[in-house]
Amino acid sequence: MIPSKEAEKLAKKIQKDPQFIQAVLNESKQVVRHRMDVLIVEHKLGFIHANAGIDRSNIDQSKNNVLLLPENPDLSAKKICNSIMEYFNKEIGLIITDTMGRPFRNGIVGFAIGSFNIPCILDERGKKDLYNNELKLTQIGVADELAAAASLLMGQATQKKPIVVIKGCNLNLNTSSTAKDLIRSENEDLFR
């Protein structure tokens, strides 16, 4: 891949490979922030992500390959989920995960990039808490919480666990919800 002038300029600023920067720009809507060795972008799928989610880990680096996010993770989740449900004759939900850093926190956590048959957000607004106070903002990112739990079990290095089965979650399966529901719009995002 031949890096653009924009990629060359940005690569010099943050001291990264220009070809890698071009791959990131190809997968992005816009650059959100950058500094030495860090590039935060809005992925074309809407995620705010370091390096557009492009990964170099857990693949052979002898050919300078990278891993990209799926083009349509919700559709991929639907296809995989339907195939598993047909094979096992069992109703399930499925989440495709990746990891991300978070503002103001160290460490990476799993999050849902695609889902099918899972209620991604549990809206608690209008319900009462333990002290009978009305919940005004509480929306639980169910798919992200399940993704984080699964990511912890899958590991990030040599664990070789690409799949985690979560049982006993007692969620009402929901084909109308997708991981896209978890993406906060730019006008509601306090960090951009």
UniProtKB/TrEMBL annotation:
According to the record, the signal peptide region is none
Q: Which GO terms describe its molecular function?
A: coenzyme F420-0:L-glutamate ligase activity; GTP binding; metal ion binding
Checking Pfam families in the record gives: F420_ligase
User: Domain Coenzyme F420:L-glutamate ligase-like: where?
Assistant: 3-168
Q: Which residues cross the membrane?
A: none
Keywords from the UniProt entry: GTP-binding, Ligase, Magnesium, Manganese, Metal-binding, Nucleotide-binding, Potassium
Q: Which InterPro entries match?
A: F420-0_g-glutamyl_ligase, F420-0_gamma-glut_ligase-dom
Q: Specify the protein name.
A: Coenzyme F420:L-glutamate ligase-like domain-containing protein
Q: What is the lineage of its organism?
A: unclassified sequences, metagenomes, ecological metagenomes
